[in-house]
Amino acid sequence: MKSPVTYEKSLMKTKINEKAEKFNHLFQINEVDHHSLSEEMKWLESLIEMRCKQLFLEDEAELNIVSEVPEPPKSDSESPYSVIVNTLQLTAIDRVILALGIASAHYPSILKTFVQIEESSNAFAIEAGGEYNKFNRSFKPTFQTALFLLAGKDLSLWSHYSAQLINGSILLQNDIIYNRSSSEFIHGKIELDTAYLNYFLSGKKPQLDHGSYFPGKLYKSDLTMDDIILENNVREQIKPIGHYINALENGFFKNNEHGFKPGFIALFYGAPGTGKTMLAGILANTYGIDMYHVDLSQVVSKYIGETEKNLEVLFNRLQGKNCMLFFDEADALFGKRSDVKDAHDRYANQEVSYLLQRIEKFDGLTILASNFENNMDDAFKRRIDVSINVIRPTEVTRESLWKHYLPNNITFESDELLKHLAKEYAYTGANIRNIMKNVAMALHDREETIITHSLLSTYLTIENEKAFGKNQSRLIPFVQKSE
């Protein structure tokens, strides 16, 4: 029987120049230098051709001829691809894995040799791995495919590169490549993170919150301390956070004059709507650090071990990055441990214990937000550097908030109405903002500029029900003093 590789080889030779032109056209659609990426794809293609040819050779002498892996191209440019190769100091196995991920995601025709061999022979399936889909005639490489391309039939090389994968690929550690397999590692499909594919093609560098496995999002705020109304004691209590950020940047934790660890934990607690998240964002913006808001829906899992696994991704990626990690409703993670009555209680307590140990190892700023301080585990509270009660605003502060959210060219019908609102309604800043937004839209619709108590009444009732409950939604009578 005629070897399918022989037929493939003749086809590939006639099309090699055509493919090179396709590479150049594909990677030159913008100003980003794609030469190194183009060369890497050609290298991968030659590697695939060599190994697939080797599959059908029986003679030992012929096997030795095609066993030597071609040298990967030099990545000495400033292109995005070269930056990753050089910055992470990618090994041969890493470069093959990354090249396969790019080919699978962006240029699958490079992998057509595997498809054609699969359709004409089942010889490669056991050795080369991969997943073939006969419905769309596609091939998805696995980590076994990478081992096959580097080691071929050489068992000693196979063991060598397998050991490197077992020790941990830097591509996996940085979530550039994913392995979603729940079974054996080498059978997992090689999946390139979309953010990095975009980086290689467009030059847009991924943020730290890239990837479907990362349970947090970059929170951006353009507000400053002048944009938030705080009680004076709260302003004083947040000062240590600024001191910590400055100390981290100034190398305070790198000297040998003390034994303090570089991490810092702050707790913001208080009623909903008092501005805990806003305050954290303002601090991040003020001191020029990134704030990552943890999505608890992506962290907390009912499956044993999954919560810890999700948090490891979070802590590992942000370690050493001088950023803020913000947990809203933190008592869902750091809540009090309970008496052990069943296996579920035992696991829940183990989860909290893990968090206590792991968060202490984090070398950045962690801010936890909770509605109630007493919901937090006692052992964890002892580890908190500062605990700040972001209290409901006092009457004086509430008056400032009403003025703060007052749109330009709009006024209250009287100073008495403003003081009445500040005195009689114990609102948070969020409550006041909601009311003023609705009032401003209503005035815009009426083409008016005066806020009257009559206009306010509807929105006060709505907000009272949300803030205090339906039984407390009644309005406080307001009597305008006669002049």
TrEMBL record:
Keywords: ATP-binding, Nucleotide-binding
Protein name in UniProt: ATPase family associated with various cellular activities (AAA)
Domain AAA+ ATPase: 262-394
Keyword ATP-binding appears in the UniProt entry: yes
Species in which this protein is naturally found: Chryseobacterium taichungense
Species lineage: Bacteria, Pseudomonadati, Bacteroidota, Flavobacteriia, Flavobacteriales
PANTHER family registered for this protein in UniProt: 26S PROTEASOME REGULATORY SUBUNIT (PTHR23073)
GO molecular function: ATP binding; ATP hydrolysis activity
InterPro entries referenced in this protein's UniProt entry, alphabetically: 26S_Proteasome_ATPase, AAA+_ATPase, ATPase_AAA_core, P-loop_NTPase
Similarity comment: family membership: Belongs to the AAA ATPase family.
Domain of life of the native organism: Bacteria
